[in-house]
């Protein structure tokens, strides 16, 4: 197994484990990742997900370059589509996804991290989109998501030059939310906190935030206004608001 899934209560930790290649993704590993993410997306017992890489050195060193060197355009399209499927699952599953970037997150590795809702990096992490140095471009969402996370100016500079950034710079440009050692512990801390919140409210918050950069502003505001109202039909909203008034901790049932 090159993708390990561990459960800690309502938190799932997905670990990409291909140490010989710095956790670079070949077809078998990426297919398995896509499949595991699909299962976890539909599992209501999982309320938050952490994605990380095995070992000390790498999160994911990218798509497998040896495999890509033999692809024709049709095969490359299918390869790109598979990476996009994994990224879309991380981005749209109705629960928060957190990347614990424990080392190299290059090319497809940086793209998977970008597809997560939150990114934390270890102080040794190195991130970037070095595809240009291989004569190609990011193919698993990097040309779109890096600009959304860091702004178009930063995205163009990083994608055009292919240079990597260390953890400190990643934090400065907004590519990661925080730098922490050990990074997995930091990610788990946030995941546990999120898993205790209302999953109904959290999934709506994620869906609405995802609209922010994708639809016209008035449309996004209109959706928020409507969904905000609908949410008041949930038990969790009643519980959360009542608990505050009664000066006690809320206990969310997830309905
Ligand atoms: N694909 C396949 N194998 C990889 C790999 C990758 N992306 N990254 C590392 N490896 C392999 C190396 O080939 C090496 O294997 P061998 O021992 O069999 O030669 C092993 O992992 C260890 O790597 P290094 O010896 O190179 O380790 P290092 O510490 O000297 O360097 C590194 C580390 C800087 C990350 C370097 O491995 C590197 O530059 N890797 C490639 C990074 C990259 O360009 N990633 C983007 C890929 S393109 C992409 O992802 C396209 C897309 O958008 C979908």
Bound molecule types:
acetoacetyl-coenzyme A
Number of helical segments? 11
Uncertain runs are: none
> How many extended strands?
10
Question: What does the model show?
Answer:
This protein has 255 residues and is α/β, with parallel strands linked by helices. The chain contains 11 helices and 10 strands. Strands 1-2-3-5-7-10 form a 6-stranded mixed β-sheet, sandwiched between helices. A 4-stranded mixed β-sheet has the order 4-6-8-9. α1 (27-41) links the parallel β2 and β3. α5 (142-150) crosses α6 (152-161). The longest helix has 20 residues, at 73-92. The protein is globular and about 60 Å long. The structure holds acetoacetyl-coenzyme A (CAA). Acetoacetyl-coenzyme A binds at residues 21-22, 24, 61-66, 83, 104, 106-108, 111, 130-131, 134, 138-140, 142.
Provide a compact summary of the structure.
The chain has 255 residues and is an alpha/beta fold. It contains eleven helices and ten strands.
Topology:
Blueprint: E1 3-8, E2 11-16, H1 27-41, E3 48-53, E4 58-60, H2 65-68, H3 73-92, E5 97-101, E6 104-106, H4 108-115, E7 118-121, E8 126-128, H5 142-150, H6 152-161, E9 164-166, H7 167-172, E10 178-179, H8 183-195, H9 199-211, H10 217-231, H11 235-245
Parallel strand pairs: 2-3, 3-5, 4-6, 5-7, 6-8, 7-10
Antiparallel strand pairs: 1-2, 8-9
Helix pairs in contact: 1-3, 3-4, 4-5, 5-6, 9-10
The protein binds acetoacetyl-coenzyme A.
Acetoacetyl-coenzyme A (CAA) is lined by residues 21-22, 24, 61-66, 83, 104, 106-108, 111, 130-131, 134, 138-140, 142.
């Amino acid at each position: 197994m090159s993708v390990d899934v561990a459960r800690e209560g309502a938190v799932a930790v997905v670990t990409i484990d291909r140490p010989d290649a710095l956790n670079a993704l070949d077809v078998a590993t990426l297919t398995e990742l896509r499949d595991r993410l699909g299962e976890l997306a539909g599992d209501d017992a999982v309320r938050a997900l952490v994605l990380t890489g095995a070992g000390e050195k790498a999160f994911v060193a990218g798509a497998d370059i040896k495999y890509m060197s033999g692809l024709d355009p049709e095969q490359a399209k299918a390869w790109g589509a598979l990476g996009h499927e994994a990224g879309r699952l991380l981005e749209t599953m109705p629960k928060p996804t957190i990347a614990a970037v424990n080392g190299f997150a290059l090319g497809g590795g940086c793209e998977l991290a970008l597809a997560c809702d939150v990114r934390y990096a270890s102080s040794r992490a190195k991130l970037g989109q070095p595809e240009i140095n291989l004569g190609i471009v990011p193919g698993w969402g990097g040309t779109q998501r890096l600009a959304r996370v860091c702004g178009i100016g930063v995205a163009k500079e990083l994608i055009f030059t292919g240079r990597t950034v260390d953890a400190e710079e990643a934090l400065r440009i907004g590519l990661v939310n925080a730098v922490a050692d050990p990074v997995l512990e930091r990610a788990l801390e946030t995941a546990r906190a999120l898993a205790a919140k209302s999953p109904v409210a959290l999934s709506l918050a994620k869906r609405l935030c995802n609209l922010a950069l994708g639809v016209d502003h008035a449309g996004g505001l209109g959706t928020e206004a409507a969904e905000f109202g609908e949410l008041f039909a949930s038990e969790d909203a009643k519980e959360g608001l009542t608990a505050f008034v009664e000066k006690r901790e809320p206990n969310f049932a997830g309905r």
